[in-house]
């Protein structure tokens, strides 16, 4: 089915030279331009399919090659057309080349995919079982089992669409999964559950609005693949950190017609509710894995350009733990990533990105470079330098842990905040000094180059690890459902079960667990920096002790709305009140770092106090058994706030500060059980009074002035 001399394919498509830019398949209102980068290919065939994607109806050699881009134009082509590529070139693994035209390949710039990978041995470029995988060559056609790229019409009516453009200081992030948020919601029609359409339902948005969050951070929505190993075990890649196309929404999150419009509708509805949309993106590696992995896209298009290769070019330089690392030091690969980012902002409407294993994006042949081309490209881009940018500041390579090492404009996931707060409320020794730094947005890590306190993304739990409920219910991981003999997932959980592993009916244990959940959540929401809540933590979601549920697309991971109890809704209301307190007290979300600077005579922006009311001294900070202290915040013309924490197992009496203007101290937040009767609603105490703080309890008091 080769192109004829007359400029028409054997199926009747007229073929013209077209343009080398933009890359991808671009509908211009009259026809479709196809453009594919490959620096080392010899020729490229465009393969067209019938609407079912099962039958290849035409194969057209792209007629032009300009600036390392193969391109051609089909005047009669229309949106909805399904296509893929076959790329011819040398199969020389020793030189980094793995071309195999028997393999149908996904266009890296495809705006939509139809279907998912159906695994067979034919997806591998070499003959499985060969003793010379670097030389063997597999001639089987994998086209039937491959997803097909779809030409899209990008037209969409946004109407009076206005982005929320939330300031960082008012940002409250909710990390969620498209499928997990909606698959078990009884009010959402079954055909919409697990999709963008389900996520944009009023039931979900109302829940987020009532809670008070300002941004939803979605686990990967780029098209991703289920690893063959998981499929054979009857599992799925639920999280989606296995991208195969950086421009296409994951097909299973779309409707039956595979239109990309539901994603835009979701964004528009979130924006109408005042909620920004942040995408978790995976540009550090792809689903093709290591050198023994399948050939489904980048590997077959130009392996030597797209991937970081080892000195022995048969192998990959893997700093991600996933088999390969994207080569962002190559200008065309960097272009693809920045083009993708701009596309999701300008065309799809998103407000920011969280970059998985972001350290990999800043690596060159010498290691991590904070001045790498990726960071320079973002910093100078007039679109990308104005959105929210969040780094997961590590990877698995040498010197990969770079917390605090990102520059202006970046926020970072702060795992030291997570571990410190967990350790403090677990009553670990010698935690107090670091707790003070973490409560004030970790200036020791982030205060450089004019960065602000919002650079610290504070979290207690995230998708990777225990949920909040499990953090106080399990001392050990229980990942048996992953079918890896409970050897996957990490063991550094800093968790406790308080007397029983997992579910229990013991009322004393349940009381302690409930209070610890309140303590952990309150600490996060009352700290300086940017807080992030994990989906379902506000209503007691449990994963039954699984701390690595990446492959559990089932009730282990889903938010099971029908199982939310009255007690869970009480905790929801507690979290909701905390968010309201944070939103209405500017002292809790100050953009500048606090250092105890004097702002008025005798008044400093922050003071650390012992329970007896005196300032913390060196010997107090160095006491490994100290588990109680107070933090006094003042300034900005706001009423002073006093945060009291007691992680010990005994009651601690705090002397409330005196000042010439404070009439009394009013209790705003207290994590003891409301039914205890210890404090009446809105309880007030005179300056200098003794405030009895029970074991494992936090209180926030606010000064009322004369």
What is the SS-derived class? alpha+beta
CATH class (first level) name of the largest domain: Alpha Beta
Q: What is the approximate shape?
A: elongated
Helix count, DSSP H or I runs of 4 or more residues: 16
Strand content: 15-25%
Strand order of the largest sheet: 12-13-16-17-20-21-22-23
Q: In the CATH classification, which architecture of the largest domain applies?
A: Alpha-Beta Barrel
Task: Produce a short descriptive summary.
The chain is of the alpha+beta class. The protein folds into four domains: 24-150, Sandwich (Immunoglobulin-like); 170-402, Glycosidases (TIM Barrel); 411-590, Alpha-Beta Barrel (TIM Barrel); 595-705, Golgi alpha-mannosidase II (Immunoglobulin-like, Sandwich), CATH 2.60.40.1180.
Describe it for me?
The structure is a single chain. This protein has 706 residues and is of the alpha+beta class. The protein folds into 4 domains: 24-150, Immunoglobulin-like (Sandwich); 170-402, TIM Barrel (Alpha-Beta Barrel); 411-590, Glycosidases (TIM Barrel, Alpha-Beta Barrel); 595-705, Immunoglobulin-like (Sandwich), CATH 2.60.40.1180. It contains 16 helices and 33 strands. Strands 12-13-16-17-20-21-22-23 form an 8-stranded parallel barrel. The protein has a 6-stranded antiparallel beta sheet with strand order 26-27-28-33-30-31, with helices on one face. Strands 4-3-7-11-10 form a 5-stranded antiparallel beta sheet, with no helix packed on it. A hairpin with a 2-residue loop joins strand 27 and strand 28 (638-646). Helix 10 crosses helix 11 and helix 14 runs parallel beside helix 15. The longest helix is centred in the last third of the chain and has 19 residues, at 507-525. The protein is elongated, with a radius of gyration of 28 Å. The termini are far apart.
């Amino acid at each position: 089915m080769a192109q004829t001399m007359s400029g028409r394919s054997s199926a009747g498509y007229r073929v013209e030279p077209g343009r080398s830019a933009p890359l991808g398949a671009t509908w211009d209102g009259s026809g479709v331009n196809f453009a594919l980068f490959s620096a080392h290919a010899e020729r490229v065939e465009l393969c067209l399919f019938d609407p079912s994607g099962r039958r290849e109806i035409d194969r057209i050699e792209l007629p032009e090659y300009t600036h390392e881009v193969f391109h051609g134009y089909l005047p009669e082509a229309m949106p909805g057309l399904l296509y893929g590529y076959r790329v011819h070139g040398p199969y020389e693994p020793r030189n980094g080349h793995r071309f195999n035209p028997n393999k149908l390949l996904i266009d890296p710039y495809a705006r939509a995919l139809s279907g998912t990978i159906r695994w067979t041995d034919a997806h591998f470029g070499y003959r499985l079982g060969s003793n010379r995988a670097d030389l063997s060559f597999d001639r089987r056609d994998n086209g039937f089992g491959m997803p097909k790229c779809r030409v899209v019409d990008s037209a969409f009516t946004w109407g009076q669409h206005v982005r929320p453009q939330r300031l960082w200081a008012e940002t409250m992030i909710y990390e969620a999964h498209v499928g997990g948020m909606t698959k078990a919601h009884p009010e959402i029609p079954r055909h919409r559950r697990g999709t963008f359409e389900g996520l944009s339902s009023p039931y979900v948005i109302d829940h987020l609005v009532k809670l008070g969050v300002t941004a939803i951070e979605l686990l990967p929505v780029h098209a991703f693949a289920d690893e063959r190993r998981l499929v054979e075990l009857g599992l799925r890649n639920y999280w989606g950190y296995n991208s195969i196309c950086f421009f296409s929404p994951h097909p299973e999150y779309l409707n039956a017609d595979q239109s990309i419009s539901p994603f835009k509708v979701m964004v528009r509805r979130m924006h109408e509710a005042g909620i920004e949309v942040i995408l978790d993106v995976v540009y550090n590696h792809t689903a093709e894995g290591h050198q023994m992995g399948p050939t489904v896209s980048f590997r077959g298009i130009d392996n030597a350009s797209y991937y970081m290769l080892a000195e022995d070019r048969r192998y990959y330089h893997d700093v991600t733990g996933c088999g390969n690392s994207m080569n962002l030091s190559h200008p065309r690969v960097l272009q693809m990533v920045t083009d993708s980012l701009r596309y999701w902002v300008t065309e799809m409407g998103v407000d920011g990105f969280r970059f998985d294993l972001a350290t990999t994006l800043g690596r060159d042949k010498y290691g991590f470079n904070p001045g790498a081309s990726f960071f320079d490209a973002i910093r100078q881009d007039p679109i990308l330098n104005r959105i929210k940018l969040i780094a997961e500041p590590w990877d698995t390579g040498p010197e990969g842990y770079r917390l605090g090492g990102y520059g202006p404009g970046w926020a970072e996931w702060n795992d030291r905040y997570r571990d410190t707060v967990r350790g403090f409320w677990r009553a670990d020794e010698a935690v107090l000094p670091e707790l003070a730094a973490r409560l004030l947005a970790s200036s020791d890590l982030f205060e450089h180059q004019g960065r602000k306190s919002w650079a610290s993304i504070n979290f207690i739990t995230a998708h990777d690890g225990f949920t909040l409920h499990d953090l106080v219910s399990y001392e050990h991981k229980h990942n048996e459902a992953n079918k890896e003999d409970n050897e996957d997932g990490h063991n550094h959980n800093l968790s406790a079960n308080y007397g029983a592993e997992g579910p229990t009916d013991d009322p004393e244990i349940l009381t302690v667990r409930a209070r610890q959940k309140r303590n952990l959540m309150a600490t996060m929401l009352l700290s300086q920096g940017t807080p992030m809540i994990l989906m379902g933590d506000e209503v007691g979601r449990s994963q039954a002790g699984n701390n690595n549920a990446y492959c559990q697309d089932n009730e282990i991971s889903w938010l099971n709305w029908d199982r939310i109890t009255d007690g869970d809704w009480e905790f929801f209301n507690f979290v909701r009140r905390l968010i309201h307190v944070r939103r209405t007290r500017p002292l809790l979300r100050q953009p500048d770092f606090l250092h105890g600077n004097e702002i008025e005579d005798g008044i400093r922006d922050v003071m650390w106090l012992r329970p007896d009311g005196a300032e913390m001294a060196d010997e107090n900070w160095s006491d490994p058994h100290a588990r109680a202290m107070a933090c006094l915040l003042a300034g900005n013309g706001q009423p002073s706030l006093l945060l009291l924490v007691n992680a010990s197992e005994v009651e601690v009496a705090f002397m409330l500060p005196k000042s010439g203007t404070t009439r009394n101290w009013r209790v705003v937040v207290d994590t003891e059980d409301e039914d205890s009767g210890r404090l009446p609603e809105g309880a007030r105490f005179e300056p200098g009074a003794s405030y009895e703080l029970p074991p494992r309890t936090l209180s926030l008091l606010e000064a009322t002035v004369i």
